[in-house]
């Protein structure tokens, strides 16, 4: 087939659901295919061919019945899609041959029938489409390019217009990629935000090829699939996908909640910055590793730290040879050169990959090794994660001192069951929805007593805790609101205590099996004093907040209160409390009271601010006492050079502290390298 051919095949299709501009958006199957051959040279129009297609699901929407005039009885005896496509190929080939031609141009009234219907359905049913469906001309685009000032025209009108111009050369030839090409992406590469989407809900074992298959019919940019990893380096079910232009991105958004296997996939807009953060890299070693074309990547996890290249090659065996031997191995290491136990391997074909995956969970040394399919973006992401120095470049170099909000906002951890837990909330539910759900019981909620729990990715988890004025009120709410509906979902309401709420908010679990405390409250990490008994600290303020921006709103500046000068504290306004359940990744914000983080903030004081704040404090004697107590100042020696604030806080998790002091250049001349001071 050639784009300059004067033999046209006009192609049309309809589905069992939405048609027109929404064709393919509801994932319904094809039920009708129509085509007709047009000879531009002879100005002749061939026979109109119309074939019904039997779908797997014999259900037609009212819109489909109205627009096509078809009924279930019309399609129940029709042939399936694969046989109809064979008839199409045979019919077109014979007619084109009878005209003395060897090629033709496929014309469609809209690219949706090719990109959003035919290719996705063929991919799901494992059908091989004829080559002509990988290149086509959009009649409307071609017409508007030739006649930009013309109004809208119908399909038959467009065909008749082109019949009148036998020498016309079609310029708007669109193609569909045969396969997805993997590749590396540089952090300095410009990425248009209008070409990127975020896919959510992916199976954890899905690869970039599986994602490309989900978006079959749309052209993904080279290396344009980036699988996202969680804090533990494992896939979190999300991916960022970059398309060749905004038109393909818009068509991808129409596949929101389409299915990959038995799972539906959510598709949202994303930005180029998000894509580069995941897929971009600057390492020359990674660039050289990924420079080999048409290679399949396998990730190995759990390798012994002493494993060598030769041991890995021997483990994989001769039936799965690695591309270029040891050059096809990339060991992931920390900045100081220590191995992480991860490695990436290149293979030249799918057969070698299948042989390698059979080694999954086999033993190397004294450890079992996990093997997974991987992508170029995952290689970049893993290397970026391990080779970066956390937090040092993003935190100010000045002392960090915790500042608490006014004490009435801190709930005491008691066994009184004056709280309720809401489970199964819609992910789009907000504070207003919860108050509306509570109805007349809203008046019994304590001030600032609504705590919404976020998951590890910072999105709503479907849970919330509400503090009531008494246990009786909490019992009444649990009785009357249990399994009430909120936005087409029923919500479970349970009575619980403040202690149980606090433990869940700090990363523990509360389910039918009982109460599991967070890691910070296990016996080996128990703090020396009661966890909820947070000491009242003097008001030491400054400008910048330690919390990351996604967690909290912008801090308010301190305001002078005449009635109570002792409480002129800067704090994040405790509006609807949003608490992130960080599980094992919350150490940067620990310790904090068992409440929403909007009641506690960390502020960085500029040089000299600590001494000035002590002098200006309403309780300077108390502040001086804290700094002058024996053992209040801890000096840490022998730390790794890349140690950050997050590492220090993680080391002291479970113990109360006042702050972490990073050495200034002047002070560093008096203190040896690799040292930090902790208050």
Structure description:
By secondary structure, the chain is of the alpha+beta class. The protein folds into 5 domains: 7-175, Ribonuclease H-like superfamily/Ribonuclease H (Nucleotidyltransferase, domain 5, 2-Layer Sandwich), CATH 3.30.420.10; 196-279, 2-Layer Sandwich (Alpha-Beta Plaits); 284-387, RRM (RNA recognition motif) domain (Alpha-Beta Plaits), CATH 3.30.70.330; 419-506, Alpha-Beta Plaits (2-Layer Sandwich); 634-664 and 672-678, no CATH class. It is built from 20 helices and 32 strands. A hairpin with a 5-residue loop joins β9 and β10. It is globular and about 95 Å long.
List the helices and strands and how they pair.
Elements (H helix, E strand, L loop, with lengths): L6 E9 L14 E10 L4 E9 L9 H7 L3 H4 L5 H18 L6 E4 L3 H13 L10 E4 H8 L8 H9 L9 E3 L9 E2 L9 E5 L7 H7 L5 E10 L5 E9 L2 H8 L4 E3 L2 E7 L2 H8 E2 L2 H6 L6 E6 L7 H8 L12 E5 L5 E9 L2 H8 L4 E3 L2 E8 L1 H12 L12 E5 L14 E5 L7 H8 L6 E10 L5 E9 L2 H11 L2 E3 L2 E8 L1 H8 L3 E3 L2 E3 L27 E2 L31 E4 L19 E5 L4 H8 L3 H9 L5 E3 L8 H7 L8 E2 L3 H4 L7 E3 L1
Helix pairs in contact: 17-18
